[in-house]
Each structure stands twice: as structure tokens, then as C-alpha cells.
Model the fold of this input.
Amino acid sequence: MSLHDPRPEKPGAGNMSIHHGFRRIGAGAAVLAAALGIAFLVILVSASRGADAGLQDAQSAPPVVATLGVAYRTDASIAENYAGLVTARRESDLGFERGGRIDAISVDVGDRVTQGQVLARLDTRALEAQIAAADAQTAEARAQVDLAQVTQDRQQALLERGHISQQRLDEASTTTHAADARRLAAAASANALRAQLSLSVIAAPFDGVITARLSDEGGIASPGQGLLRIVEDGALEIRVGLPAEVAARLQTGTQYRFTTDRGEIDARLRASTGIVDTRTRSVTVLFDVDGHTVSAGQVARLAIDQTISADGFWVPTSALAEGRRGLWSVYVLEADEYGTYTIAPHVVETVRIDAGRAFVRGAVHDGALILRSGLDRVTPGQRVRPGVDG
Done:
């Protein structure tokens, strides 16, 4: 038997063999790509899980909070502020004592005036005419008195000569007295009209500043109607209502420091009423102040240091949490077994509140850590880490 097969090969048999080889190579590449993809996914999932775990750990870490160490005191000194009003020692509403038409007002708001200066006048033409008539009547009455007196003197001479009776002399004397009475009445009427004339002028009762003008020329003024308001210039005072025990500590003649919108001023204690107002339960105290450093109508605040005898500690008002029934609490940081702290509210009593801080007392031990601020960002029972201890 010959080793060589004499049968001819079928057409395309070689090509088919090559094609089968390529198919085997392609299948191997696909398997390799799939393996690489699976390995990449495994790595990606592992990395993602690690990142999630790190994020979860970061999110579960207790937050850092601002804290404050409690420091107890047996007393506390605070500055009590008492508001007072700057007023003029003298302030008057000026008006005419008689009615009439306003002829002139020579001042306006803000004008400074001196004592005795004429500020306003009424129309006095009719009154001046009445005064002229009264003066004429007075002159006529005086002439009648003179005539009656001459007649009486003549009757006296005739009586001495025996030409008339005593009755004729008495009648002449009566006529003289009656004429003189009419003269006095006419003079009194003229003086009364002149008094009305003096009431037709408003003059400044003291040196001061015009702070209000309530009418103008041509208006009709009624008796007692306020037309101008004057405030004494330069002489101002501060009226302050103080508790009786505080007022008793102040010394007359001593200067005290006040705070106003324009800054600080000094005022000297002039007097205290010493009487407790039944409505305000306070004593009115008067301080003299220079009118060139402050204006009437301003508010001036007097700060007086007071000592509170009570065990407690100071906290900022931001460390207080308002609870039910008007109770206040502080958030105390209590250490736990994990080396962190847990927030626990402790009720405290506010003894005094002063300028953004409060003096409190309660079941909080000395040296305890409490939250300084940010109470709205945490809840009781939450774990936290202490931050800055103020």
C-alpha cells in the first residue's frame, strides 16, 4: 500500500483549515477580554465599597462643638442701666392773656431769645382808641373838679360874710366830692385799658430757645391759647427714675457718667425727691448737665455697678435653651465609655441678664463643659466632640 493517497484533494479544503484556525484564535481573545473586564469590575466595586466605607465613617464621627468651662462665683458685679430724659429746667407755653387779632410774631422755631424780648403783639388799634377816650373823660372830670372846687371856695367866702347859709356851702362841697369821684373813675378806666394794652404783648420770661410756633399773623388768639413754646437755654437737667435703694447710695453734688447718642457726658446730682412713685416704684433723681453737650429730649443712660450675692456662673445668652413653662437649660457635655461626650440638658435659674450674658445657677458642677453656642444644630443625647473651651 502506498503511503501517498492518489486521490485528489477536494477543492477549498486548505482554506477551510485556515478559517478554523482563525476561529480558535478569536475565541481565545474574547475569553481574555471577558476575564480582564471581570477583573476591572471587581477592582471598581472594591474601590467603591472602600470609598463608601470611608464616607460612612466620616459621617458617623461626632461633630465638633464650641464649649465653655463652668466657673462658679459666690457673687457677681454687673452694671445696671437706668434711662433718663434730658429736659429743660424751665419750659413754657406762651400766649396772650386777652383775645384779639395777632398783629405780629417776631420769632420762629429755633430762634434764641433773651429775657424781656418782645416775641408777639396783638392788634391794639381799637384798644388805643378806647384809652384815648378814657383819657378824655378823665380830663373832663378833672376840669369839673376844678370848677366845683372854685365854686366851693366862693361859697365859703360868702358864708363867712353871712350872705349865704351853711346848706349852700354843704351843697357846693358835695358837688366837689362827686366831681372828684368821677375823675377817679375815669382815671381807673384808662388805667385798666392800659393794663389790657400791656397784655397784648408776649415777652420772653427767660433766656431760651423757641421750640414751637403754633400760630401766625392774622389769626385770632383766645385768652390762654398757647402760641409759642420756649425752653430755657443752657440750663438742662436729667430726670431718672431709680429704685429707692439705688437712689439712697448716690451722693448729692457728685458727678456721674451718662451715655447718650452723642457719646458720654457728666452730670452732677442736684436733688432727689426721696418719694417712691406708687405707679413706677421708683424715686425721681435730678442731675444738672451742661446744655452745650446735650439737647433737651435726648435719652441719657446711667450705669451703676451692683453686686449680686449668689452662687452661680456666667454664660453667654447663646448657651441658654428655652424649655417648657419658661424654664431655661444649658447643654452639658457628659463623657461616655467611647471617649466622646453626650449632650444632656440641665435646668438652670437665671439670676440676672446683662449685655448678652446671664448669671445662672443650677445642678451643674464646677468645671463642667457646656455648649457655648449652636444649640439649634444638636439634640439632647447626641454624641459630640468638644472644641474650643472659652
